[in-house]
Fold this protein.
Amino acid sequence: MAGERRVTRSSKDAPPTNGTSKSGSGKKETPPAKPTAAKGKAPVKEAPKKGVPGKEAPAKANGVNGNKSTQQDIEMAEDVLKNRKDDDEMTVVVPPPKGGKLAGEDGDDEEMEGVEVPEDVKESGPTPKESTFTGIKDNFALLERAVTQFDPRFTLRVLRSISTHRKHLDADILAEVVTSIYTQSSDVARTVLAVIGKSDASFDKAANEMDVDGGKTKAATPKETLPEIDVYIWLLTLVLLHDKSAWERGAKFSETVVDGLRTMNRRTLDALSAKVYFYYALFHEQLKPLPPSTQSPVIAVRPKLLAALRTAVLRKDSDTQATVTTLLLRNYLSTSHITQADLLISHSQFPPAAPNNQIARYLYYLGRIRPIQLQYTEAHDHLVGATRKAPSTHSAGGFYQASHKLLIVVELLMGDIPDRAVFRQASLERALKPYLQLVQAVRVGRLEDFTATLKTYADVFKRDGTYTLTARLRQNVIKTGIRMMSLSYSRISLRDICMRLGLPSEETAEYIVAKAIRDGVIEASLDHEHGFMKSKESGDIYATREPGEAFHERIRACLDLHDESVKAMRFPMNQHRQELRNAQEARERERELAKEIVEGDLDDDDAGGDFEGM
């Protein structure tokens, strides 16, 4: 309430200020008389003090002129303090009334009345374009730290931020960035502005202003930018052109950038140059005529990619080497040059320290080459590794789907049936619908259903690049049907097999059954004279080596995952040299101290606590 107060006293005999109270002896004490002003003197009023709330209660808050209750309480406390001689200390704390304001607040309110807040002040936080501009400028500092500390982790942070900045990146923002860090005479600035169509952009005055010293005007020396910043600006330009589908301009500009990178030999440019080569190949893939035409521009870029691969190997540039290797494999596969792709794999070594995304791409391309060469087991291992290393982000969903499509076909060619849980994944359910019907036709061994599915989704399989492999599944469908019949019947005639599988003649059925027995698909015997197939009794599968082999495969996959995780770990470069230098300096100090002790120049006591254990 407005009239409440708290009195803190240090004396033991301070009288109560409210009504009667019981003392320690049990006697009642009369309440003190209401304080009055001394004779011949005017009532003493409390002078307003700075920082004391409630000295003048505003009329708006209390509805009356001043706060009478609070003023009376202050005067009462002052009279009690004068009348008590035994009191050493007394503190009167009066809280401000509810709804009251401190001194000076009324004036502030009056000054703020009628003042309109601008719209720019009301907005909270920068706009997306301002955030993009600020983020790009902040990346320049990271690139400088990557050069001074020779640490590629800062460059990788810059590359990871491109996916965030490209959402709001446009020609105006890029032109503003270029004009803020380059001078008007810079070749990099003029080239980039001409490519993005901002040749008339005005440059920052701070970068081109004149210095005046002693009345003489002289031109300011422009600050040279790092080559890493130049390549980063080029890379942003390529990203902008790709998002705008400017394939012609992008291909021409990327050739200029690649020619400029060939003259630079800096290890801090490895990650940036690898990204530039990626967009260089990507732009030429979109030029007409498209692959697999023999006149496609992708064939013309192979010499530069091979030269870049040779240079990266000599410079031990693992980033560029891994990226260019995957680009060459993609280039060969787009024109169906399987033999050249196989020669590239056999005559080159993929760097083990490559980034995880490049390893996933490399394994996927190996998984596309090996099935064509009838190496299904090796292809299966590569594709399983590619699906495990595939990024889990939404932007990498296409690669994840393509890997699973090829993996399903390879598993069918190996005679295995994929797990049904694969087709229930949210990111794969719609894309794998044709392959689900294909698996169902192969699983039951119905040749008619397989032929109908292959004919219905022929365009889908051709677009995915799996039509040639799916056409090979006809023999597997027949083998699966024979296996189902061998499990269902102990003896079945070749004529029934021919009718159930839709084969043209009994001789064809006999040939297929004999091949299935030789390949180990079924355990049966063939009676040529009577024309029937007799199945053998199936024993306990746990008595065979199959469970042990399956368990061994799982253990090997876990060990491979552990080894690859250890190889993928990144540490600061040359950190071990610093540790060796510190250890060598410590050993030299120990030798000097030991030598001084032996010569008698230093006693054990003078050496301090370093030699307490000796």
